[in-house]
Specification:
This protein is of the alpha+beta class. Helix content is about 15%, strand content about 45%. It has helices at about 10-15, 20-40, 40-50, and strands spanning about 60-65, 70-75, 80-85, 90-100, 105-115, 120-135, 140, 150-155, 165-170, 175-180, 185-195. A 6-stranded antiparallel barrel has the order 6-7-10-11-9-8.
């Protein structure tokens, strides 16, 4: 809201510069803004605002999706948010992946990996998968771990105690169906690597 002075005249009108000076002031303001955006400090802040999956640079998610959502995803480490923690019933780990804002489609992947133990590899395991389309609120789920298979799972200890880089390769043989309404998706292939913090029990 523009403050006013007695007589009903807006303060902004009294303080407005002469017309001849306005283009010069505008140009100076634009130059100052550009210089600030191009400064090393601004560049570092912009980079810091972009999420990374793993600090070592080797996190990722790749997936082939068909059905109600048709997409081939290649999410690199930079610009991908990911997290992992132990889960119960059935025991294992839960890992989640989301691309930074602006990605289309805007998807959140939640993998429930059954039978995973701290530091141990796994072959021919089972996975539960939920995919949320955050652009329209649709939720697709396998509702159990019988529709997706883990080909292989490997773990590598990271610097922090009880934190591992977990890499998974697998596929789904049956679709994840819409929790509400109609529709289904088939994730025929998934490959990903992200952190799991086993201390978060």
């Amino acid at each position: 809201m523009i403050p006013r002075i007695p007589g009903g005249i807006a303060v902004a009108k009294r303080l407005r510069p002469p017309r001849a000076r306005r283009p010069l002031l505008l140009a100076a303001g634009l130059l100052g803004t550009t210089a600030a955006l191009a400064s090393p400090t601004a560049t570092r802040l912009a980079r810091a605002a972009i999420p990374v999956c793993l600090p070592g640079g080797d996190g990722y998610l790749r997936a082939k999706i068909g059905g109600s959502i048709d997409a081939t995803l290649h999410w690199p480490n930079r610009g991908t948010w990911c997290a992992g923690e132990p889960k119960l019933d059935p025991r294992g780990v839960r890992m989640s992946f989301r691309r930074a804002s602006g990605a289309r489609p805007r998807l959140l992947f939640l993998f429930g990996l059954t039978g995973v133990r701290e530091g141990a590899p796994l072959r021919e395991g089972r996975a539960n998968l939920t995919v949320i389309d955050e652009s329209d609120g649709r939720v697709f789920g396998t509702l159990g771990d019988r529709r997706c298979t883990i080909d292989s799972l490997t773990q590598r200890r990271l610097a922090a105690a009880h934190v591992y880089r977990v890499e998974v390769h697998g596929f789904c043989t049956e679709p994840a169906r819409a929790i509400h309404g109609r529709g289904e998706i088939l994730v025929s292939r998934f490959d990903f690597a992200g952190p799991v913090n086993y201390a978060a029990r």
